[in-house]
Amino acid sequence: MEYLPAVARQLYHSRDLGESFDFLTWFEFPEESAPQFDELLKRLRMTEEWRYVAREVEVRLTRASSKKKHANWEKA
Predict the structure, then answer these.
(1) What one-character DSSP code corresponds to residue 5?
(2) Which SUPFAM superfamilies does the protein's record reference (predicted)?
C-alpha cells in the first residue's frame, strides 16, 4: 500500500486472455513516480514467490499528452 496512489496495478489471468502465460500484471504510474515503481519492482523480485517466475518481460510505454498529439497533427 505504500506505493499507492503513485503506482496502480491490474492483474490479468491467462484463463481470461487465452494465452500461454499464467498472468500479466499491468502497472500505471506518472513519469515522476518511476523511481517508486523501480523500488517496487526491486522489492517484488526479492520475494519468495519470485522464484517461480520462469520468464519476465518488461515493457515501458509513455502516454503522449493530448496537447502534444494535437501539436503534431497541426504540423502535418
Answers:
(1) T
(2) Dimeric alpha+beta barrel
What is the reported pTM? 0.66
Which CATH number belongs to the domain containing residue 35 in this structure? 3.30.70.3420
Specify the length of the chain in residues. 76
Contact yes or no for 27/7 (Cβ under 8 A): yes
Query: In this prediction, what percent of the chain has a pLDDT beyond 90?
Result: 20
Residue 32 falls within a domain, yes or no?
Answer: yes
Which distant-in-sequence residues (6+ apart) come within 8 Å of 13 by Cβ? Answer: 22, 23
Is 61 within the bounds of a domain? yes
Least confident range from 35-39, 40-44, 56-60, 66-70: namely 66-70
Domains contained in the chain, number: 1
What's the gap between Cα 75 and its chain centre? Answer: 31
